[in-house]
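Convert to structure. Protein one:
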Amino acid sequence: MSAFQWLNEQFSFFGFPVYWSDFLGNILALATVWLALRRSLTAWPVQILGSILLLIASLNVDLGGNAARQVVIIVSASWGWATWRRSREKEGTINVRWASWRERSVLLVAMVAGTFAFGALLKTAEASFYPGAPWWMVLADAWIFVGSILAMYTQARRYVEFWFAWLAVDLVGIPLAIHSELYFSGIVYAIFFVMVVIGIRDWASRSKGQELASPLEPAVVLESRNDTAPAAGPQTARPGTEKTNGLGTVD
């Protein structure tokens, strides 16, 4: 047995056959969500390693869309890691914000159009599930792929909508994983659902008081000013003298 062949072996998890690659990859995926909740830079390398393991698991059960998704996640995580690092160096922390309505509209259109476009590609190449797989299965595979890309993008941009993107992925991922006999992935998707709800509340509370910024520019948190006016009368703050302040700490 080669050094990594055991990753393709199965073991019994409460009576369900589970690949070691699926098990370990999802453990790291859970760790990634927890670290993202804390806005830790460590989330990115953990996500990369977990995606490598899940790539192996997806290839074991011929999930072409999910396998491609892991490759994209690995590449996107490398970009996100660099983006968060630059943000922390510039702002001293990882600030988050809500996307504007225009940005949300673009994300929604990209989700729907991307799903049908990638689904058509998978169907033509017969790269999802098995040759002749029904459209609903192929589109579900494509939905998870496209949703994961958008989740990675919104996470890197530090939008609160990052959590909603993962929520959309989870709602399809749970039944798809069970149908594909990736039972542990199904269990983890269910745990993700709970963590995503917690993440939405946490990032939403941290976004309060922030200005909407361009998606190409980092969000800025404005510190409330408590300047004491001198006895001679009120003092007007000069433009450009606002201070920025991060929210919370980052590992």
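Protein two, convert as well:
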Amino acid sequence: MPPRSRRNETSNQGGLNEAAQLADQLQAAANFTKRDIARIIGRDPSLVSQFYTRNKGASFVPALREVLAAVQTASITELPELADIAARHITRRTTASGARARVRSKAVLVTPTGSGTGRVGAQAIASGSSRLRPLIAEAARRGLRLAFTVRLAKSGYVHPSGSRTDSPGIRRDVIQRADHTEERSYGSSATGGFDAADFARRVDGAGGDITAAIRQWLVETGRIHEDAQITHLEVRTWRPR
């Protein structure tokens, strides 16, 4: 039998590193899921899984300790509040020269003119589209406008394709896909779009879950059925004239 790689070994009692142990304690203390913990530390749920499988997470230990203390001593369980606590204790890795290490992820950029675009697919949708949260937060901070495009099953929409009641917006004609899904857009620079700050508040109210916040808006405004599920999402921002 080949020797086990030291990279995959853990030094803590019980076979779990400290990040995994803290994650376990958070799940036990507040009934959090790995997805919740990922939102708290601002990362993808797959990274939390790697606390257990690849011995990762050492850089998040200080933040997880503070979050666990906030849960246990102050009974704080709201994800946005815990995310704020965690953010103060998360530092980016540095290179040998002392420079901040690059993170391998798709950047979400808002230009000086206010133009920004972020897209997520099925995998990110399942984790709440957290990759788009910095875009929406920055747009809200700058007082920008916002529009979005959703893709879901054709049967999930309340109004038929091309209905002006649904107001597709920037893409006047809906985009129909071969897998029986449709893309429809809501808001545009021509119609004024939506207040990014309002959607940022909706996201906070949904515990940071952008998919849930936008889906709830679509249900509330009578555009999709309650059981409809978003499969793809795009958010665009711009500065109002």
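The two ends are 68 Å apart (CA to CA). The first strand starts at residue 116 and ends at 120.
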